Amino acid sequence: MVTIRDREARETTSARETALACVAAGIDAARPERVVEGCVSLDGDDLRVGAATYDLAGRDEVVVLGGGNAASQVARALAGVLGDRLDGGAVVTDDPVAVPGVDVLESDHPVPSARGVAATERLLAAAGDCGPDALVLAVLTGGGSAVLPAPAGDLTLDDLQAATSALLDSGAPIHDVNAVRKHVSAVKGGRLARAIAPAQVVTLAFSDVVGDDLDVIASGPTVPDTSTYGDALAVLDEHDVDAPETIRDHLQRGANGDRPETPTPDDPVFTDATEHVLANGRTALDAASAIARDRGYEPLLLAAETEGEAREVGGVHAAVAREIRASGNPVEPPAVLLSGGELTVTVRGTGAGGPNQECALAAAAAGLPGDTAFACVDTDGLDGARDAAGAVVDDETVEDSASARGALGANDAGGFLADRNALLRTGPTGTNVNDLRVLVVE
């Protein structure tokens, strides 16, 4: 079970206690060992994934390849199912656990690193070693875009680091961010599938993106790409991204036709490829909802696919809480309102924090009514670049709204909330199905 550090110190009211119980249950429900146990099984030569069956008879080898925050946890769960039918593989992650027979290669998140490049090179080499009669289980989870850096063409790690930082600070949605990442990478946008071909590829994904778009999860290394070099250039212009000229030049040459596009749906590398989303944000939301109902609250899902600026979403949640208190709409209290998705922050200040911390502080600054609590976390345990999963707030968190607004203006929600003992720390959780927000109204 996920551990929220100093949890008792943050459970100062019944509303806070319920909020944290819902958060913990949501994260636990999305942990790979539970998810894989529920949807992957082996019966003789038949490997079952959901409703699909894959015949292992006659396979030269069964291999696990992939990357992401939870990649080694998923690989370990698969090794438990497959036993001696698993012949090896390699996964790249920033949260390593040992996996029998599989190389677990360490990388970094959210900005690419040198050891990430070296690990991704080893992953690509393992992909190239797969024979035509291999079955490759491609494990892809949230965080894969960062932990799988492989500079394309003449680009360097410095180019990728600068472009990644600029994209993350721009407030661009993840679909746009990953359109760029796919076109400056030698592994993303279907290129890992190209390295594996003609072996059969079965993609097993833990989704951290709104809509579960497979070409966006981990930037889609094993699935067809629906974006183009031209789309990537448009992202830089639309969001005023200060990317290095080397990045722009690389993308422009691709748009001019001087570089091959990423593999599209009609590419033969996908002839023997299938995909499964094993867990997503609704996995966590459903579990949190069940806890709320068991405790006597009426759960209400506001939206599973919320996007937008974190501080604006926080203000909306505060307004909904006030409406419930005033009129009983959209649900009579006691109630627990839930939302998921992925929020963004347009960074203009130099403070510390992340989208969930900004969302929580914005709600508290906008005015939460009494007897409420609002918990916001990133289910991977790392919200932005700070070592916090998010925060829990209530009507007593902000005594001076002007100072709270100043912290938001400086993008220093983390600093403000740390001083008020409101940050939630879990460490890496072993999963990643994006944001989970729990609003409790007594």
From TrEMBL:
Keywords: Pyruvate. Residues 336-435 form the MOFRL domain. This is Hydroxypyruvate reductase. One of its GO terms (molecular function) is glycerate kinase activity. It holds the Pfam family DUF4147. It comes from Halobacterium jilantaiense. Residues 19-252 form the MOFRL-associated domain. InterPro entries: GK-like_C_sf, GK_N_sf, MOFRL, MOFRL_assoc_dom, MOFRL_protein.
